[in-house]
Every structure is written in C-alpha cells, then in structure tokens.
Design a protein that fits this description.
Elements (H helix, E strand, L loop, with lengths): L9 E4 L8 E4 L8 E12 L4 E12 L5 H5 L2 H24 L24
Antiparallel strand pairs: 1-2, 2-3, 3-4
C-alpha cells in the first residue's frame, strides 16, 4: 500500500526528554507527527515465505491531529509500519556497505578519527 516511502518522507530527531530518536513525518497526510517506536518484533513463517512486522509506538507530537484519532486509525498504523519497514531495509542496505556490517538505525556518522597509534619510546 505504501511502496513509495523514501528517506524524504521522514527524519530522525533527537529529544531532550527520552534517550531514543523520534521519527518526524515530513510529507503526506500525517505531516508533522512525531513519534517513537517501542518494541519491534519480526515473526517469520518460513513455510509461507512470510514475515510479519509488529511494533509499538508512542506519539510525542500529534501535529494537527488528536492523539486518540491517530491511535485509533488503522491506516496511520499501517503507514508507521511501512516507514519502519523502509528504515529497516535502508539500514540493512547501509550495513552491507559498512566494512563491519553493523546495522546502525538512525545513527549519526562519526566525524572523529578513531585511528590509534602505539608510542614506542
């Protein structure tokens, strides 16, 4: 249903109130909604070649919407699931490019030099 989600549709935002990154929607019907994903679970059914993505979320800023309206809207939850799927797929693609193969969802690239040298005196 939401096959065309891109990195242009959302951004990671920091919060002074919680230690997790939030997601701010930048486009579409729910533009300006800010939320945080909670527990994420992937359930695989190999015999059906199927995986189901389950997650919880917490709305931090509801934009022009009432929080209860968002919570009770199955289309909104489907959209959050599609955004999460994009985030996971994008992170996997990035980890394949990364030398260590480490998945870093919403991480910032370090601008520090971690190269160390031994001092033999």
């Amino acid at each position: 249903m939401y096959d065309n989600i891109s990195i242009e549709d959302y951004k990671f935002v920091e919060s002074n109130e919680v230690e997790f990154y939030g997601i701010k929607l930048l486009t579409g019907k729910w533009k300006d909604v800010l939320y945080i994903y909670g527990k994420v679970k992937i359930t695989e059914q190999p015999e059906l070649d199927l995986a189901t993505l389950g997650f919880t979320y917490n709305i931090q800023e509801s934009g022009e919407w009432e929080p209860d309206d968002l919570i009770n809207d199955p289309e909104f939850k489907d959209y959050l699931g599609a955004v999460l799927q994009h985030i996971l797929e994008n992170s996997l693609e990035e980890s394949e490019k990364n030398e260590e193969g480490i998945i870093g969802i919403g991480s910032r690239k370090s601008n520090t030099n971690s190269h160390t040298e031994s001092s033999n005196q």
